[in-house]
Design brief:
With 139 residues, the protein is an alpha+beta fold. It has a domain of 79 residues. Strand 4 and strand 5 form a beta hairpin. It has 3 helices and 5 strands; from the N terminus they run ααβββββα.
């Protein structure tokens, strides 16, 4: 008799917990649009650039990382910078909606900044060895 009471209690508890959890819902398009607006607004406000503007769209990291990145572009306000253009990387923590800004002038921007193949960035200039596959010595 004791065993059935324990089993019934466990079943009732499990059922109650499942009912409270409810179904999992994916975020709607409207929710993601609102998220992107919040990221852009808060990153622009945190930027040192008076003319801060997004240099692209927000980049979502997975839920484990819990952040969204946005590249900001603008012009430095300091007199000694003479209005030089610059960029900042903004990290938006989704759980707290805090933003962190770092100088990102060293990041490449645009498709012309990308190497034609991933190994070009690692290997450097292939022609610097003086050898090529067309010189007749290729196996």
């Amino acid at each position: 008799m004791r065993r059935s009471t324990l089993s019934t209690t466990s079943t009732c508890l499990a059922t109650a917990l499942l009912a409270m959890a409810g179904p999992a819902h994916a975020s709607s398009d409207a929710a993601w649009e609102e998220h992107d607006r919040a990221v852009i607004e808060q990153c622009q406000q945190a930027s040192q650039f008076p003319d801060a503007a997004p240099a692209g769209k927000p980049v979502l990291f997975d839920d484990e990382a819990g952040m969204t990145a946005l590249l900001i572009q603008g012009h430095y306000p300091q007199d000694h910078m003479n209005g030089q253009a610059g960029q900042e990387l903004c990290l938006f923590l989704r759980s707290s909606q805090e933003v962190y800004i770092a100088d990102a002038d060293k990041l490449a921007m645009g498709s012309d900044a990308l190497p034609s193949t991933p190994t070009d960035a690692i290997d450097g200039d292939a022609g610097s060895t003086g050898r090529s596959d067309t010189d007749g010595n290729a196996p």
